[in-house]
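REQUEST FORM: STRUCTURE PREDICTION
Request ID: SP-0412
Submitted by: Lab K.M.
Chain count: 1
Length (residues): 196
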Amino acid sequence: MQMIKTTLTIITFILSFGTSPAQTGFFQRLGDSAATLTQQKVVYDPQYVTIDYPNGDVAQDRGVCTDVIIRAYRKMGIDLQKEVHEDMRSNFSVYPKNWGLKTTNRNIDHRRVPNLMKFFERRQAKLPVTNNAADYTPGDIVCWNLGRGLTHIGLVANKRSPDGKRYLIVHNIGAGQVLEDCLFSYTIIGHYRYGR
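STATUS: Completed
RESULT:
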């Protein structure tokens, strides 16, 4: 009986942390992979282009906010272009219709913030949106409403703000792939932790 109680206590203790050490390691590495993107010069360029599939990408010196997420996950061996496309193809009706599309488009679907939000939500990766900086840890994905129907996305890196109170964000809002203290600079509308 004592052994059963001890085992249950250990299981409860492990489950209370929510993620295993292996998962924590994944998210730390994801935060690091996003930070390495800031070393490459990228011009903000929202032009529609035809790209390879799977593992397609726009030119390495071009991109938008979603490309930060796509590229960080690619460094981890996860192709969000393929994963989003396959999920949209099977479940098109549940994805946003902001662009008047009647079918999927593997060149652009994964490069749209509302589609990524829906994908992460469908993968049970959604976390609470709070005003507590401690709730946003390396590897987390944050989405913002910029107003006038514009959305934005970034990834939490392993480096902290100068005052030590927040982790910095890797994002591209017009100045290329940069590391900035901007977690609460815009209205947060999504918070996700997606990995394997």
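NOTES: Residues 20-192 form one domain.
Reviewed by: T.R.
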